[in-house]
Amino acid sequence: MKLQHKIFIDCTLGQLMATLLNLAARVLGKVLRIDHDLSRVPDVIAVCKLVGLGSIIQSGPLVRSLRTRYPQAHIIYVTHGSNAAFVSKHFPVNQVIPINDHSVPALFLSVLTALASFWRKRPAMYIDLEIYSNFSSVLTTLSLSTNRLGFYKSDKHYRIGMYTHMMFFNVQAPVSEVYLQFSRLLGSEHLSTELIEPVIKTDHESMSRDRLEKSHGVPKDLPYFVFNPNASELRIERRWPADSFASLAKELLIKYPEHKICFTGNARETSYVNSLIDKLQGEHRVVNTAGKLDLEELIILLKHADLLVTNDTGPMHLAASLKVKSVTLFGPCSPDHYGASDYCYPVYKKVYCSPCVHEFILPPCKGNNTCMQMITVSDVTRAIEDALSGHKRSSEQKDYIFSESLKPFGVIHCR
Q1: Exposure of 368 by Cβ count < 10 A (0-12 exposed, 13-18 middle, 19+ buried)?
Q2: CA 229, CA 248: separation in Å to the nearest integer?
Q3: DSSP state of 198
Q4: Do 263 and 289 touch, CB atoms closer than 8 A?
Q5: pLDDT (tens digit, 9 = 90+) per residue, 184-223?
Q6: Would you say 354 and 334 are in contact if contact means Cβ atoms under 8 Å apart?
């Protein structure tokens, strides 16, 4: 299904179903008088983050904390089918339930399969990390979990009643810390925001590097930078202009004559990356891997790069998990929320309407992303110099107080 169709279905059918389920959950809650005490040790826990590879990576510390607190629990992770293999391989979970939305029949079938698994295993706790999706609220409620934990924003007031425990969603705090508020709610201590590092076997990595060099020209013995000029179609206004990326590439190729620049992107982004590389007029030290790598190969590509230059999207979070420095360009989102890693060097023009993504489906600029266009090549080269020289990253990140006496702040009373 196309993105606009998914949004339309979520905003119409999803909203209607959520409203009806809210009423049903309130009535049944009164009648059945279920005990929602979180002090009981759960035998089955479900965590849901459907979309956004970066956000999924940022949920790793939460999953790790759940595994530490409940070592015997059966942990299920619910996510989009495209993310299932990554979560299954790198996260300490017992089961991954994929949701596929390539078509209406595929979505319907995967939802039925998911619900059958929920009803069979009966999760004592379901943690929904989505905030904007009506569909995830419906899925959470239909899981019939005893305790349903989710996020609250003022425009998602209808969620009160569907969820048994809710947490205020702070759009300025580091997102991994936002997710960890649920761990604090459950009494976890000594929490770490360090991301889970993807681990690839040494012999497999060596063979993949050989293949990357022979098939795609990614250097194995020479230094290189990685450029990710893309942003997912969900928030395409996060793109820095293609002309700016091309100008930056030309400048870096002159300044760093030993380096190559490897452009990356998924299959849907290939034509955009190709059009950008055309602006470089056949520069022989430019490598185009767009649409040619699977996720594991992308991980290997990033792991051995000197630096990643990227818009605010998934590869930035992958680089952070690999402890690879990135210069990340922010505009519609705040670097305080998504760029809190020590390995991220943010470039950000804090225009009045930023961060807009948390308030609008269609941003006020209607895609004319002035906040990104205001970032100059000089701004980015200065950040690159800071990153390569090892200077401490600049950040406007605030020191939040997340809890007091083991009680987390931001709990919303649902009853």
Answers
A1: exposed
A2: 11
A3: P
A4: yes
A5: 999 998 899 999 999 888 888 888 898 999 999 999 999 9
A6: yes
